[in-house]
Amino acid sequence: MRCPFLLFARSHRSTGGRRTFGQSTSHAWLAVGTLLLWLSLVATPARGQAVTAGADSHPPVDVTPQALAIRPADIPARADADEQDIQAIVHRARVPDAARRYEDALARHSAAVRQLEERSGKRDLAALSVRRLESLQRHWLLYERSVAQTRAELARTINARSEDVSELAKRRLVWQATDQAAGLAPALRERVEEMIARIDDAEELLSVPLAGLLALGRSGGALATQIQQGVASLAGMVEEQDRRLMSMDTPPLWLALRNAEAREPLTAGVTRSLDIERAFASSYDAANVRWLPAFAAGALLLLPAMVWLRYRARSLVASGQATEPSMRALSRPWAAWLLLVLIGAVVYDIQGPIFRQQAMMLLAWIPVLALVQRRVLASVGPWAYSSAVFYFLNTMASMLLGDQLLYRSVLLALNLLMLLTLSWRMLRARRRDADEAGPMPVWALTFLGWVACVVLLASAGSNVLGNISLATMLTGALLDSSYAALALYAGSTVVVALLQVLVPRSALARFAGRHSGSLIPLAARLGRTLMVLAWLVYALQSFRVYRPLSTALVTVLTHEFQLGLLSISLGSLGAFSLAIWAAFWLAKTIRLVLSEDLLPALALPRGVDDSISTLTYYGILFIGLLLALAMAGFQVGQLALVFGALGVGIGFGLQDVVKNFVAGLILMFERPIRVGDLVDVAGMSGKVRDIGMRATTITTFDGAEVVVPNGMLLADKLVNWTLSGSSRRIHVAVSTGYSVRPGQTIELLVSIARAVEGIAASPAPIAVLTGLTPGALEFSVRAWTNPGSDWVAVHSTLSVAIRDGLAEAGVEVPLPQRELHLRRASGALVPPPAADRQR
């Protein structure tokens, strides 16, 4: 296959003749684009042909005994080296600790799984709440992770032993081939047979522990299968509980009261729930025992730190650097310390027993109420305090599911009490003035309150009609979501207070002053958005709709649409858009921080900081584009044709864009102009405001913003008045009469120039005689301005000073004079008019 680029180049070379630079450049870009397209089209077949040719042309490996045999001269040294390796292999095989450790670990896992299987195989699990079932499921998942870790370590040991056996087999094959070789000396042959016998003994020694490890691997696989079945069984029970939300799972309450006969003892359900949670807590702590000392040490060290932060916060408030409401969270160090410790405990138990998480959340209610601002408590009303009692009662009532009638009665009474409390709160809120509202508007709190009332009415109605699963879920979800909102708010106040105390106030004020219009509001919005999203996810999980919604959303987003060879899904498009937005936001933010905070603090030459920030900006954008394409599902092979077409487009119509882009890179690295330079280009003068990758923005002295392509800056003549310095030489032309000596005038002009503000002392100003014209002596005053001075203003000041100085010295500045003589054709002078003669 012939390359079309060669044909293209040959045809244009044969045409000959004169061609302009623009035409040759256009044809060159076209040739490059055609070459890229041709390479993209032939890359895959050529690669396949290369692989096939490589496979066909590879010479066959000689594996005959003669090729494997060791040369007689190398037998002694090779035997000594192999003997050392065999001894090392035998030593590793004789260490029984690894196999015994895996055997003990699998035995412990097996016994624990049998107990958990007995606990999970009871028929009365359907009477437990969904929280207990989820806790039991987490117990199974804990054993699944533990067994998976043990199996991974066992697999690595088996692989190491298998590699040793394989290595012995290879060495035996080599020594057997050497033994079959002819012409060996008796001593060498004896040494060879000795090595074969040593290898046979080592293989026999390795076979027993390897067989034991393989048997343990099979036992681990069977145990993992048993655990997977247990996880699937519990997952099915949880899904069944979710399906029961839409169906009547018990008789109506009036029928249940009428048919109340034999009921299970009250302590049976409580004992069963506590047994599940207690066993899970013991196993969870045993699996994470290495984290407990670190957690305890961190909690103990945090208390004195919080006390010190309280004194630090008081000093900031006393000095006026912080306000008292913002430091309220640190004014109560015990509450802040307890909240942080309980948050750490919840994070530690993120995959642990749910009942212990509920206990931690209930304990955290005390510091939350102590840290929440008074205006928030005033907005929420007594619900902030009574909800803690309701949360505790609901947690305890969930233990009574074994006695359905008692549980339904307690739950109904709890719903009615909560409904009464919220109704009273709503009636009080209607009488409040809007000006007394807290951080949330009154209408928002009223709306949320009525939504909570509707949820409680639905829970009570479901309980009465016979849908106990829905009633349980609605009550628990309402309490959990309301508590989570208060906890997130209290936690955010603690974090904000810690940042204000720990971050130096001067640095914080400087950063806030620079980015008050961009980063500070964006960071605040981002923090609030993350808090709302976290609360929303938690609320959806509490209302048991997160799993079906996420499943449906994943199904919709992963549905692929085929467009020829390209497959596109909504998820890939969303990921692409999100990645592009994140890349632009991150690039803009990093560029802003680099240009305004980090780089100005470094001793860099002028213009380097702008180049670094701009190149960083476009580098992040390029990486973000690649990541966005990868997230959208595009492969490099699929993009080859696109790049080829892009090369053709560059050759035809985008060569100016690419030229300007390359010129922008040159400007970034060579820095012939920098932001703030005064330049003359394309017949205009101005100040460089911004240097981009495609174009440079210049602000003229008339205030116009001129966008100049970067290619023009490199192609045309560019005058930079401030490349190596901001000093500028100015000229003032002066004329005097012949009556004054030139030396005296020069001394006077130099003294006047030295006294003008803005004129540099070095180089010193000078005055020179530039011409002898009829009626006047021509002088030129030449002086350099100080760095950073406005040369136009200095030029004007110097001109005024020279005029005033010459007038004070009595030096006459001759005015331009002209004599006009009128003659007749004969050459005689024309007489003046009669009127002039009479005068």
Characterize the structure shown:
The chain is 69% helix and 7% strand. It is built from 28 helices and 10 strands. The strands form 3 sheets. It has a 5-stranded antiparallel sheet with strand order 6-5-4-3-7. Helix 6 (130-180) packs parallel to helix 9, helix 14 packs across helix 17 and helix 16 (442-465) runs antiparallel to helix 17 (468-502). Residues 1-62 and 433-438 have low confidence and may be disordered.
Structural key phrases:
839 residues, alpha+beta, five-stranded antiparallel beta sheet, 69% helix, disordered N terminus
Strands, total number:
10
Strand content: 5-15%
The end-to-end span amounts to: 107 Å
Relative helix content = 55-70%
Describe this structure in a few short sentences.
Helices cover 69% and strands 7% of the residues. The chain has 28 helices and 10 strands.
Write the layout of secondary structure elements.
Elements: H1 4-15, H2 21-57, H3 65-68, H4 75-93, H5 97-120, H6 130-180, H7 186-243, H8 253-258, H9 266-287, H10 291-318, H11 333-348, H12 354-371, H13 374-380, H14 383-397, H15 404-431, H16 442-465, H17 468-502, H18 505-514, H19 519-542, H20 546-557, E1 560-563, E2 566-569, H21 570-598, H22 608-631, H23 636-652, H24 655-670, E3 678-681, E4 684-691, E5 695-700, E6 705-709, H25 710-715, E7 719-720, E8 729-736, H26 742-754, E9 766-773, E10 776-784, H27 791-808, H28 834-838
Antiparallel strand pairs: 1-2, 3-4, 3-7, 4-5, 5-6, 8-10, 9-10
